[in-house]
Amino acid sequence: MSSRSSDVEGRITTGTTVLSVGNTDEVELARMGYKQELKRDLGLLQNFGVSFSIISVITGVPSLFLFGLNTGGPAVMVWGWIVVATFSMLVGLAMGEVCSAHPTSGGPYFWAAMLSKPQHAAFASWVTGWFNLLGQVAVTTSISFTTANFISSVATFQTDYTPTPATTIGTFAAVLVVQGLVNTFGVHLLRYLNNISIWWHAVGTTALIIAILAAAPSHQSAKFVFQTFIDKTGVDGVGWSQRASPAYVVVIGILMAQYSLTGFDASAHMTEETHNAAVAGPVGIVMAIGISAVLGWFLILGLLFSIQDLDHTVASPTGQPVAQIILDTVGEKGAIVLMVIVIGAMFFCGTFSVTSNSRMMYAFARDGGIPGHKFFHKVDMKRKSPVRTVWLACTLSFLLALPSLGSAVAFSAATSIATIGLYISYAIPIFLRVLNRESFKRVSLSYFLKRTQLIANRLIMRSLLLALSSLTVWASGS
Asked: Which pTM was predicted?
């Protein structure tokens, strides 16, 4: 990679490059050794929106809510979320700094190469890339499989339908196909879907919290929510807090928070499609973590306070404790509306997970990191999208879910793989940044502030124009 960057820098200085030097993003990409192939039409809001949609607390929290109730209970869910969110923000800030210096679709694996000593660069990049790829595939699997499970749960409302593993995997396959089609033929719509997804997640999550709290016949006590420790991790009624230590259960129990607050590397993977990538990428990472952390904590509190019968919620006939909480608070008709909001958010989450996954695979194939890289390193010229890696992402995600036909713990395994794989891929470049700090080239503060000011000016101008148009409409109406 370093030799490639040198070659490109040489072409720029000799004037043989076809890129306009005035285009900062393309010149910066060329400096790193790549030419602009993907369509660059995303802004800061859309870059943030991809990570925000993939973190999707309204997907992550319901996905592992049952796991959280049984593995530590409310106390671990509430306080564990705050601890994990704090450390996730620290990780995001560290990643943002590196992203500002190396804004490319490769993300963590490219950073690992740039931050390593030359003799170790290839190995560090390869290891980071495969952990990131595995984590990305597992995330897509878990998100879309959760979507299928929730669709199956809604199908049981006011019907005699009973989902089976076969029907659920069939629904999962259908969800993946639709998400793949959106990323293939609707790539020009992703910008608009992204905007819809941001509002859907923000407004939908808030509406869900308010609805269940307002409609709940009764509420759990603050002691239950903030102090209750539950351990149902063992067999024969003997949990691991007794077999080993309560600390062990706490560490395992925070998987819900750790899994939910991941996937924010998507902002880095989308930088080759984002204007002002050196600023938008890191800001997108940090904003996505911060807003999701606050929204997710209030969602957990809302769900826990709204539990009517803990045992019935855990053993819900719907198979999903969150679905049971919604049923117990707003009734079946209201539950259908709220579940549609949840499923819609999950679908957006899975769609943009495929988007991020495909960009990472495309970049990794571009650098020869995966088998068949010559086939997968191809951008559809008409759509300016890596269509082949879109379907590679969908296929691998489906294959990872197949064990669910015969194993009840397959979903927990997928979420664990996603969490471990992604956070290892985040940790490696951060560790190398600290280890080889003398070789890291920061983006100058003046450049960062200047570009940030440009974004702020645009947002202010748009707000003023919107206010002026609204005033004009009001005046004409008067």
From this structure: 0.84
